Amino acid sequence: MSYAVSSALQKAVFTALTGDAALAALVGTAIFDAPPSGAVPATYVTLGPEEVRDLSDKSGHGARHDFSVSVVTDAEGFKAAKDVAGAVSTR
User: Fold this and answer.
1) Confidence of residue 28 (pLDDT cuts 50, 70, 90)
2) Is the dihedral of CA 38, 34, 21, 80 positive or negative?
3) Is 36 helix (H, G, I), strand (E, B) or coil?
4) How many Cβ atoms are within 10 Å of 64's Cβ, its own excluded?
5) What's the chain's average pLDDT?
6) pLDDT category of residue 1 using cuts at 50, 70 and 90
7) How far apart are CA 59 and CA 39, in angstroms?
8) Cα separation of 72 and 14, whole Å?
9) Tens digits of residue pLDDT in 32-76
10) First and final CA of the chain: distance in angstroms?
């Protein structure tokens, strides 16, 4: 199993999310590559956790990287979370 591209993948996803104007309009800069500590924004997006599965075969090394992108909010109901999730899913 290989974590060789794990860091680059996380960076690419984080860059795509933080560079999205529609998502920024909903959460500002509250996009994190790990759950925030201390005082947290009312609504935020976070990456993780990651699960890696070996997909190597006789032709070479390979791995499948699955990770979550979570929307967390203290807003009542689901509308705020669904609006943010919709913006995330278009990335």
Assistant:
1) very high
2) negative
3) coil
4) 10
5) 90
6) low
7) 49
8) 16
9) 988 889 999 999 999 988 888 988 899 988 889 898 999 999 999
10) 27
Q: What amino acid occupies position 8?
A: A
* φ and ψ of 64, to 5 deg: -105, 130
Which conformational region is residue 31 in: left (phi greater than 0), alpha (psi within -120 to 50 degrees), or beta?
Answer: beta
Contact 88, 17 (CB under 8 A): yes
Nearest C-alpha neighbor of 29 from the set 49, 45, 16: 45
| Count of all residues that appear for the chain in the document | 91
**Per-residue pLDDT, 49:** 85
CA distance 71 to 55: 29
The residues, ordered by sequence, that sit 6+ positions from 11 with a Cβ below 8 Å of its Cβ are none
In this prediction the pTM is: 0.83
**Pairing relationship of beta strands 43-54 and 31-32 according to DSSP bridges:** parallel
